[in-house]
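Exercise 7. Predict the joint structure of the components listed below.
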Amino acid sequence: MAGVTTIHLVERALLVSIQDDVTDTEIIDLQDQLSHRISEEEVRGVVLDISALEIVDTFVGRVIAQLAGISRLLDAETYVVGMRPAVAVTLVELGMYLPETRTALSLTHALTQLRRA
Amino acid sequence: MLNTSRDVVTARQAVAREMKARGTNTIRITRFATAVSEIARNAIMHGGGGELFVFLDRSKTYLIVRCRDRGPGIEDMDRAMTDGYTSANGLGRGLGGAKRLSHGFDVTTTVGEGTIVTMSAKL
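Solution:
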């Protein structure tokens, strides 16, 4: 089944769970949708839940990094939550450190940090 | 068969499933599935599509993936393998990264005919 990604607005943050079978095309669409919603809905942050992702390769990593860059320009922070340890190991080996992204261990942590901001 | 971005997902999921079924640990599976994803995407973006084969070596200790495209081939192999080199809006880490994430890695390319990448992971 194709990865259907829903975006929820909670406490002025956009919450997104990325599905494991997300394709390149779908994740680019998601980036577009999020960029529009950040500016239209005066969002403070974007929380990307990637706990379902078994892998993050250079393409998906780049889209996440770009999304963080876009959010920052639109005055919002991007948090990545739920990264699997094996995914973190692989990303570092690929030389992708996602410098623009903030990471949080859980959704609760991300929302707590956004409330403080 | 590799033609669309959906096929990249199918390919890396198939590889992960094979490794999981043989009891390979998660880190190895993630590393190799990531490498397969890079190579499969290259075949679609640069090679105009291709085919991907998954098999075991004779001793059944390695999973081997062979990805073949009929694209333009790679003219400067050393440069293509270098981190930071990118041909088409890539990040320039795909090929070199895939090599680092695999146990064995070999590229055979013929300009004008296509590229075959053979990569393996210990099970």
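Discussion. The mean pLDDT of chain B is 90.
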